[in-house]
Every structure is written in structure tokens, then in C-alpha cells.
Amino acid sequence: MRIKEYKEIRIFWGDLKSAINPDTIRGKLSSELITERPFNEIQKNIHCHAFAFLNQVHKAEGKIIIGNCSDFPMLTHDGDYLITQEKNVGIGILTADCLPIIVYDPVQKIISSIHAGWKGLTRGIIKQVLLQLQQDFFVKLSDLVVMIGSSADDCCYEVKQDFVDEVHLHYPHTKAFLYTSGTIKFSLVKYLKEIIIENGLSENQLDVSNFECTICSDHYCSVRKTNKDPNRQLTVVSLK
Ligand SMILES: [Zn+2]
User: Fold this and answer.
1) d(Cα 236, Cα 238) in Å, to the nearest integer?
2) Rounded to the nearest 5 degrees, what angle is found at the Cα of 191, between the Cα atoms of 131 and 221?
3) What are the residue ranges spanned by the domains of the chain?
4) How far is 168 from 145, CA to CA, in rounded Å?
5) How far is the CA of 210 from the centre of ligand 1 (A)?
6) Distance 96 CA to ligand 1 centre (A)
7) How far apart are the CA of 98 and the centre of ligand 1, in A?
8) Element (H, E) at 180
């Protein structure tokens, strides 16, 4: 677990130790969970009084959170990103090899949490979030900071040719694949970097300082390493 504090936000980058089985919280209200582990620990560290998590479906759709969220039913509404301007509401993502992404605008004081696997990225989740931030909240792309947690990386993330073919349908020039002695490996981070640049951000707006490969590190849930383990790590961000 790492707690990162910035002028306007606090982030909880979770790991194996604070991981949860999504089925144990699905449908519960945020107010019921606030005293339960690991949410009590997160609440203490990032000072949020409620949480919102979606039922992640690897698509490019999400929700805007308005209100204090104490009656938000966890993992019930489908979607892969949340956006909010509410203070002290923890918006979050569950992952085990997919990429947790936080987008933050210190000028408009707005945050987004994004669950991004290869499918979500290929289906345009980044473009959709950036469009919504610009259209509904008057965000300027140059003001944004994009931060990532840990995910599967090209040291370990082996894929097959049909995966490559599907990505190439949308991004034929991507350099996110690594071809070595008969195997193909994929980097979600390299893919994300290409996508944010294509959508008008610059590389130095991407903070990768919290990134590790979830497969070869011992600190994270990884479906590719232990596919029977239902647990997922949490990433939660909250505005001060
Ligand atoms: Zn690795």
C-alpha cells in the first residue's frame, strides 16, 4: 500500500495486503463498508467519508458522481470510469493485471478513476474520459496529470496472435508488443502512453512512478499468475 498526497488529492495505491474479493462487497452500501477492512484503513489514510466503485465490464463507459455517495451500492452499476468534483468521496478501481489510472485536473479540481485493460483501452476509454472532462467540466488537456498504478507488463504479459490482430484493427502502428524468440508480450503502459499522446496529451503528463509489473512482483494480485484467486487490489482517489 502506498498513500500519495498532492495539493488537492490523496491516492491509495493498494496491493495484495489490502486486496478484497469483489463478491463480498457487491451490492453493499458505501456507508456499510466504511467501518470494514480495508475501507476503514483507506478512509483513515485518504480522508474520504464514502466510496464509489462500479461493476467493471471492460468498456468505454462510466459515471459522473454527484452527491456524498453514502448510499452508493458497490459494484452494482456497470462501467469502467468514474468522474467527480465531490470532496472526500473515494472513487475507485479494482484490478489484478489491468491498469488502474487516475486523471487529475488541479485547475478545475476534478478527478477520474479508470479501470483499463487492453479491451477498455482499445475500445476508447481514454478518449471518452478526456472528451467528457472537456465537454462537461471545461477541462484543458494541458492541465491534466495522468497517474498509473501497477499492471501486467511486457516482461511477463504473454499474448497470442489473435490478441495482436484485434489490437492492430484499432491501432495498426502500436509499438506496445515485444517480439522475442517465438513469444509475443504486451505492455499496457506503452499502449496507454501512445493513446494519451494520440489524444492530445504529452508524455510528461504521465506519472509512472507507482508502476510495477503485477505478474513478476510478489506484492500484487495477478489473474495471470494465480487465476483461481478472486482477490483484487484497490486504487482509490479522493479530492480534499
Ligand atoms: Zn513482469
Assistant:
1) 7
2) 100
3) 2-151+189-239
4) 27
5) 15
6) 13
7) 13
8) strand 177-180
Write out pLDDT tens, residues 69-114: 989 999 999 999 999 999 999 999 999 999 999 999 999 999 999 9
| Residue 196 CA to its chain's centroid (Å) | 14
Half-sphere exposure of 11 (CA within 13 A, CB side): 21
C-alpha of residue 8 to centroid of ligand 1, in Å: 32
Measured distance CA(54)–CA(75) in Å, rounded: 4
Residues near ion ligand 1 (Cβ under 5 Å)? 155-156, 213, 215-216
d(C-alpha 84, C-alpha 170), whole Å: 29
- CATH superfamily placement of domain 2-151+189-239: CNF1/YfiH-like putative cysteine hydrolases (3.60.140.10)
Question: What does the pLDDT average to over 158-175?
Answer: 97
Per-residue model confidence (pLDDT) at position 1: 85
Q: 126: CA distance to ligand 1 center in Å?
A: 24
Interval between CA 237 and ligand 1 midpoint (Å):
25
Render pLDDT for 10-45 as a digit per residue (tens, 0 to 9).
999 999 999 999 999 999 999 999 999 999 999 999
Q: Which ranges constitute the DSSP H helices of the chain? A: 30-33, 39-46, 118-122, 125-137, 161-170, 188-198
Q: How far is CA 138 from CA 175, 198, 203, 238, in A?
A: 32, 20, 22, 20
Q: Give the residues across from 102 on adjacent strands.
A: 113, 147
The alpha carbon of 156 and the centre of ligand 1 are apart by a number of angstroms equal to 4
Which pTM does this prediction carry? 0.97
